Amino acid sequence: MTIVDMLRHNAAAYPTEIALVEDNPEVRERRHVTWREYDLVEDTADEAYRREISWVVFDEQANRFANLLLSRGVHKGDKVAILLYNSIAWLPLYFGALKTGATVVPLNFRYSSEEIEYCLDKSDANILVFGPEFIGRVEAIVGRVRKGRLLFYVGDDCPTWAESYRELAMLCSSADPQIPLSEHDDAAIYYSSGTTGFPKAILHDHESLTQAAEMEAKHHLTTHDDVFLCIPPLYHTGAMMHWLGSLFVGGRGVLLRGVSPKTILSTVSSEGCTIVWLLVPWAQDILTAIERGDVSLADYELDQWRLMHIGAQPVPKSLVRRWRETFPNHDYDTNYGLSESTGPGCVHLGIENVDHVGAIGVPGYRWECKIVDEKGDPAAPGEVGELCVKGPGLMTCYYKDPEATAETLVDGWLHTGDMARQDDEGFYWLVDRKKDVIISGGENLYPVQIEDFISGLDAVQDVAVIGLPDERLGEIAAAIVELKPGHESTTEADVMDFCLGLPRYKRPRKVIFADVPRNPTGKIEKPLLRERYGATALVDRENRS
User: Fold this and answer.
1) First vs last Cα of the chain: how many Å apart?
2) 16 exposure class (CB count in 10 Å sphere: 0-12, 13-18, 19+)
3) I want to staple 62 with a disulfide (CB 3.0 to 4.6 A). Which of 92, 180, 181, 337 is the partner?
């Protein structure tokens, strides 16, 4: 069975039941934003609205797009790129492309024109489907990307250099084309969520997607009656693979446009959401809004909300403690994964292991894990080494990059680049990214450990620890601290005093008060911080000499 078969099943079993809801509950003024901004406020319209489609309409829309593609000569081996904000059209387009046997290429909606062109070329995409928000970026490169490609526009007022998807799709049959698919056929190319430079193209087959769907349902005990709230962008494996759990059981999914605490809580209340996946900043914002009295839980119907889970980044233990104090009836889970492992879940804590908060967990459904040393040999129990994972959700390869594939996939094991250790109970603990380790005076410092500690200071909203160049020690640890509203009087001395609870060699040598930038999947943009503050450190050093 493939996920395309799952959609067919749901359309037959639950034809009139609601499959997807697109909810924009608040009116917001449109504003120009740069593509690098993390805030998802631009992902809203200037008027409130709610849209929904049933499972049978979902399937019919996918069939119409599939038949449109087939009428244009699309076949197995072709690549269909999708450049859209989260919307009710996104998933039918995804499944429509799969129904032709083509490979889907979701694109980050924050890509610049140059990155869009790079990703289209890298993936060999010969079709691009895009929305109105991207007209300017696509038009800037249309002279180059249109050659040999079809450009389909989703929206009103189609530009003259593209074709209207809506007008053309309505002329196509809603019958299923029934193209045979196997689990070993190529299914999707996802791009790594790198914070600088051009991303890698990660190829997955249909087995990867089916594995993700079944695993998500098993990990979170998802049933047909659950309602999943999806806030992060669907182009990323995290959001997509979590939603696949709803597909697996025929449950409802709600695509929310907007990330304010009031918007999230009101949508959970009005849509009856039972499962919510949050990124760390959104969970922090909700707790801060509650603590400050900006929102009152009594204003919302939240009794049905049974599970909050977090992934995509290390989760401070203090955040989970605060959440469980505020929402004592919630189950909690955290998921670890990479785009190379079909997103979240190759390691997960498990809702039954909340007493082990801080660990990333145990191997996920049908996954294996191990820790290896620098030579690739198994690390001794308790030793820090590189985490490797193996399972049916592994990527096929880095598309058109055999060297990078050979470095990362070794004897069927994915070398994650993450440093971790396994405790005597079998739980894995993430230490840090291999490339983020700070070597100070010959000691290895793992920023995640320091960040987790500093996040326990009440005044701290977010924190990132990076290495800055130092003449004597090679590098020193610097903490970029983002304060909660109302705590602006907190000083560097306050943070340093709090850090006396750390071993001396782990204490940051510098504190910088500033916003902590995160990419769309919630990961701290540490290369950007190193570039920004590393240059300052070099200037300071030169001024001292």
Assistant:
1) 67
2) exposed
3) 92
Q: How far apart are CA 287 and CA 461, in angstroms?
A: 10
Strands 474-483, 460-470: parallel, antiparallel or unpaired by DSSP? Answer: antiparallel
Average pLDDT over residues 452-481: 87
- Alpha-carbon dihedral sign for residues 394, 399, 402, 408: negative
Running DSSP on this structure, what letter comes out for residue 313? Answer: S
Q: In residues, how long is the chain?
A: 545
- Three-class SS of residue 393? coil
Alpha-carbon span 114 to 199, nearest angstrom: 12
| C-alpha span between 455 and 131 (Å, rounded) | 39
Between CA 207 and CA 393 the distance in angstroms is: 7
Task: Please state which of the ranges 23-32, 38-47, 383-392, 530-539 shows the lowest mean pLDDT.
Answer: 38-47
Position 302: which residue type? L
Q: Show the tokens assigned to 215.
A: 């695993």
Backbone angles phi, psi at 467, to 5 degrees: -95, 135
Cα maximum dimension of the chain: 75
Cβ atoms within 10 Å, residue 384: 18
Out of 64-73, 97-106, 139-148, pick the least confident: 139-148
Identify the pLDDT of residue 406: 95
Whole-angstrom distance, CA of residue 8 vs CA of residue 228: 20
What token pair was written down for 153? 């526009």
The pTM score is 0.81
For residue 311, name the pLDDT band (cuts at 50, 70, 90): confident
For tokens 């594939």, the residue is 405
Contact of 418 with 384, CB cutoff 8 Å: no
Instruction: For strands 227-230 and 275-278, give the pairing.
Output: parallel
Rg over alpha carbons for the chain, rounded to the nearest Å, is 23
What single-letter DSSP state applies at residue 380?
P
Which is it for strands 331-338 and 343-348: parallel, antiparallel or unpaired?
A: antiparallel
Angle at 265 between CA 54 and CA 246, to 5 degrees: 35
Q: In what order do the strands lie in the sheet with 362-363?
A: 49-54, 18-24, 252-256, 227-230, 275-278, 307-311, 331-338, 343-348, 362-363
Per residue in 323-365, pLDDT tens? 999 999 999 999 989 899 998 899 999 999 988 988 999 999 9
Beta strands in 150-206 (DSSP E): 150-153, 163-164, 186-191, 201-205
